[in-house]
Structures are given as C-alpha cells and as structure tokens.
Design brief:
This protein is mainly α. It folds into 2 domains: about 40 residues; about 45 residues, no CATH class. Helix content is about 40%, strand content about 10%. Helix 1 packs across helix 3.
C-alpha cells in the first residue's frame, strides 16, 4: 500500500528566537493572543505552552512589579487660584499601563491602594 501526503506539512520547527518574537508580539499595537496565533497559523494553546516553557527556562520574565517614580511638575499659573477657589479640589492623574490600558485616579490616593489597583487592572 502506498500513501501520499498532499498539501502543506503541518509540523513545523520553531527556534527559540522565533518563539520569543511570537510571544513578544502579543499586546504590541493592541494585538490579541488570538490574532497573533492566527497570523502565525498556530493555536493559542501553543503560545501559552511556549510562554510557560520560556518562563521556566528563564527567557521570559514574569509580570514585573509596578515601579513608582518621583514626578517633578513645574507650577502652572492659575493653579493657586483653582486651589484657593475650591479647597477640596484634587487633580486627576492618568497612568498608561501595558496593553494600552489607562488608569485614572485621584491625586490623593494612597500608595498601597494604588498598587493594589494597578495589580488588579494588570491581572484583568
């Protein structure tokens, strides 16, 4: 009995560099995991498996902890008037997170609360 395989062979070999590039392209310019998988003709589970394997081998770092940096903003004319007019007024801060997420919060938020909030949003 003779058999022929017609069409494109589905078993492909990916180098570690290719796998890292595919894993790294998730979230870039809003690309979802499903879109990246379709683009490379692989399953979503394959990307999850590669990411898990690369983390175990030390090629991909886990989720980084948020880092708070001091911000020095020059005073703006008229700001004193706004604060004097409404002593309870606070300013809103906008923080851009990974994967295009934006977090807006009050300037008087406590650091521990902000840290928890960032972790929740990043985990979602």
């Amino acid at each position: 009995m003779r058999a022929e395989i017609l069409g494109q062979e589905r078993r492909r070999r990916w180098t570690d560099q290719q796998r890292l590039e595919i894993i790294g392209s998730v979230g870039v310019d809003g690309a979802t995991l499903a879109e990246v998988a379709r683009r490379h003709e692989i399953t979503r589970q394959q990307i999850y498996t590669w990411r898990h394997d690369m983390k175990k081998r030390g090629f991909v770092l886990g989720t980084p902890e948020p880092v708070f940096l001091p911000v020095d903003m020059p005073a703006v004319r008229g700001a004193e008037v706004a604060y004097n007019a409404s002593p309870s007024a606070t300013s809103m801060i906008e923080l851009r997170l990974t994967q295009g997420r934006t977090l807006r919060f009050d300037s008087e938020i406590e650091a521990i609360t902000l840290t928890r909030l960032i972790r929740c949003v990043e985990a979602a």
